[in-house]
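Tokens for chain A. Residues wanted.
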């Protein structure tokens, strides 16, 4: 005789779009979401942002992908069910899930609200959950996560333009705070004016920081200065501009995910300045040591943020009316969107209208 789970513990049928192999092409996919446990929150997915890391993952460019893979870790929606021991949320609340859905909850990192640095951190998609089930992301109709890893969305923050903040937003907000580059009057450079870079400019400006955008594209100058409110603009390939700006920046947030030289960026820093890398190039970057020694400069990295800081970031965004600049697309446009992400042909973040355009394959 086979024991059966109680009815409420049965996995739930779900539907999304998945990559089946390294071609990276996504197609409709039926799967099972784990049951809603006593500390879980289930919600209907309304919007999900497309992150550049989704593209890396669907094509297995980091060598860790297991198929089938449903991407998406900028997920927002409305609560449909809560477990019996859930305390923070109720049906009807607007909520979001970012890059992780689990951690050990007991190590030093977890105890200090830095679950993102836990060695047992569980990614929102493409990972194994505690019960052995696979985690699936937000290119799908529903989501289930422990309430600890759920973020509350303020009513005045639009869900579509707010969704990318759950990855792009926290990825730049966290290093600005941690490395002390959030003090009014400081001068910070933002390298790359893409999905991460444009929200970095918005957060830094809201913190009272003077912002210089550093880009390889001269045609982004007007956008940076007039639309995003940056104070100045540097073309990184213009040697005269870079030479004139040497030693002027207190810190730099480098959002570029392609291989690029670090020496020109280090040269822009004042003594004791900090260059923080948040992009993830496929190949190692060359790091010049002598300029670091002579200027006591720091090169560091930063990975999104813990849940407490993510909630802080969302609340800060709502207070200062910070959203991502998005292009909202239907679910069946996702493969074309991926191709455009590869070409940086988006201003600045694709967001899938999951709630209205994901059609179950019946």
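Reply:
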């Amino acid at each position: 005789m086979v024991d059966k789970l109680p009815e409420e513990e049965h996995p739930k049928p779900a539907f999304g779009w998945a990559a089946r192999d390294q071609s990276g092409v996504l197609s409709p996919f039926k799967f099972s979401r784990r049951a809603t446990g006593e500390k879980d929150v289930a919600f209907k997915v309304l919007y999900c942002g497309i992150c550049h890391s989704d593209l890396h993952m669907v094509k297995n460019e980091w060598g860790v992908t297991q198929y089938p893979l449903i991407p998406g870790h900028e997920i927002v929606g409305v609560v449909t069910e809560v477990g019996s021991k859930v305390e923070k949320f109720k049906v009807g609340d607007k909520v979001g899930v970012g890059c992780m859905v689990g951690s050990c909850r007991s190590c030093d990192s977890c105890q200090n609200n830095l679950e993102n640095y836990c060695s047992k951190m569980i990614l929102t998609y493409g990972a194994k959950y505690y019960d052995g089930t696979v985690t699936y992301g937000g290119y799908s109709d529903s989501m289930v996560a422990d309430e600890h890893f759920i973020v509350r969305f303020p009513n005045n923050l639009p869900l579509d333009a707010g969704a990318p903040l759950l990855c792009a937003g926290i990825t730049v907000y966290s290093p600005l705070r941690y490395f002390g580059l959030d003090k009014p009057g400081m001068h910070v450079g933002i390298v790359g004016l893409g999905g991460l870079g444009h929200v970095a400019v918005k957060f830094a400006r809201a913190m009272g920081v003077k912002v210089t955008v550093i880009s390889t594209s001269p045609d982004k100058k007007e956008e940076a200065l007039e639309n995003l409110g940056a104070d100045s603009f540097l073309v990184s390939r213009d040697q005269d501009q870079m030479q004139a700006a040497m030693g002027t920046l207190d810190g730099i947030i480098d959002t570029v995910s392609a291989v690029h030289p670090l020496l020109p960026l280090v040269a822009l820093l004042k003594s004791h300045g900090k260059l923080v890398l948040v992009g993830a190039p496929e190949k190692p970057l060359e790091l010049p040591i002598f300029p670091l020694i002579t200027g006591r400069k720091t090169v560091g990295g930063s990975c999104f943020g813990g849940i407490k800081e993510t909630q802080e970031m969302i609340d800060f965004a709502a207070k200062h009316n910070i959203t991502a600049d998005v292009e909202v697309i239907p679910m069946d446009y996702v493969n074309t969107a991926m191709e455009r992400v590869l070409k940086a042909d988006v201003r600045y973040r694709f967001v899938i209208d999951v709630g209205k355009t994901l059609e179950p394959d019946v």
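The first strand starts at residue 12 and ends at 19. The radius of gyration is 21 Å.
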